[in-house]
Amino acid sequence: MAKDIKFLVDDLEKSFLEGKGAAASTIAFSLANRSPIWTGTFNRSWKIQKNTPVVPSKPRSESGSASFTRTAFSRIAQREPVIRTRLSEILYVGNETEYAGFVINEEPSPYDGRMYEQSFRDQYNTTPIPNQPDWYDVYLLGDYLFQDLEKGFQSAGFVSGATFTYG
């Protein structure tokens, strides 16, 4: 039986908000599994927050020291929970480590002043996916971000490129 059109706006809002939360969770999970692993602190520090950007203030794990010694090659297995919002609320996905700007090659390291791209020239065995200094830009500007958005919204019932009938 067809649903009364008076429910359309509420149903669309509910589906959109589910998709928005699921997309943020998918993006955080993807970034965690694409980001470099040295101590694991950075790839475990992707967070989702409502209404305020994630503040990069978390210190590096002690096992990392200045030598960037990697301790484990595990990737993140669990997604961030889906955060429910209202239409007026913004969801931010960010990394809370104090050296986040360094790992996305936007700021010098707060520890030794090097830029992230120097890790490749200095052979520190970086591990982002793809394994290149601009891995974050590749994620944002390539198809990866759009694929994660699509996955999140598909989990809420949206279909890519489809024509919908209501009811």
Walkthrough of the structure:
The protein is mainly alpha-helical. The protein has one domain (5-155). It contains 5 helices and 2 strands. It has helices at 8-34, 100-103, 118-121, 135-141, 144-155, and strands spanning 46-50, 91-95. A two-stranded antiparallel ribbon has the order 1-2. The chain starts with 7 loop residues before the first helix and ends in a 12-residue tail after the last helix.
Topology at a glance:
Layout: H1 8-34, E1 46-50, E2 91-95, H2 100-103, H3 118-121, H4 135-141, H5 144-155
Antiparallel strand pairs: 1-2
Helix pairs in contact: 1-5
> What best-fitting shape do the alpha-carbon axes yield?
elongated
Supply the number of structural domains.
1
Rounded to the nearest angstrom, the distance between the terminal CA atoms is 7 Å
Q: What is the H/E order? A: HEEHHHH
Question: What about the largest sheet?
Answer: 2 strands, antiparallel
Helix content: 25-40%
Radius of gyration: 19 Å
Model regions low in confidence, pLDDT < 50 over at least 5 residues: 64-72
